[in-house]
């Protein structure tokens, strides 16, 4: 079985070459208190027995400047794929994305729609803002995985985008922040469940997703993940450590996620821990 971590970050110690330009103007706390550069990230992957990882550009440090992620990818092309960020509302958005994918070798793009704070403002009216139409068209036409950070309440807006692009590959950061309030029946999980009809929608199980569920009263986190597996299928879930944004070693973060997974057969487990990510990002590389 191959481990593929779908959600990692790296920060350069060289602030002159790679200056901070955080979205919303406020740099993330984790990047100041426990920054990890790409060399340390790869050492942590080695220690955790993780063969490959997606390096997700840290927009709460670098905004839309993908320079450090590009340098990291060039340094470790055999271990990393890179997920960048562009301003989806800019007139130059498609050209910026094209340069990122076709010239710099990135395998995906990310947009932060809502993250539960006011530090990173929602772009425009959110994921369905009409100014983003050309970007969504380019992403769908070129089979580019798009990582979306949002809450499950944003699902109807995402569904609007997907109605005309039903095959678009979407990876919901932190499992789309599922709403498990309401006790063991978890009625609000249907917010995410409505997206299951779009076969390209995938969920990333990460420490922030587990933390959100663990902090809710009367929530069995493993049972909720089991519901998501039943709704979307094991072939549409994957894990991400969120290292180093989430505290702990990468090994500890991986083990915590594995410990919360529901009972799965070997094929399902292998898919969530690596196979699905290999399939998605290999397809992106081939398409490019």
Description:
The protein has 288 residues and is of the alpha/beta class. The protein has one domain (4-287): Metal-dependent hydrolases (TIM Barrel, Alpha-Beta Barrel). It is 40% helix and 12% strand. The chain contains twelve helices and eight strands. It has helices spanning 29-33, 38-48, 59-62, 67-75, 93-103, 133-141, 155-163, 190-193, 207-214, 221-232, 250-260, 266-287, and strands at residues 4-8, 52-56, 80-85, 108-112, 146-149, 170-172, 201-205, 237-239. An eight-stranded parallel beta sheet has the order 1-2-3-4-5-6-7-8, sandwiched between helices. Helix 6 links the parallel strand 4 and strand 5. Helix 2 (38-48) crosses helix 11. The radius of gyration is 18 Å and the shape is globular. The protein starts with a strand and ends with a helix.
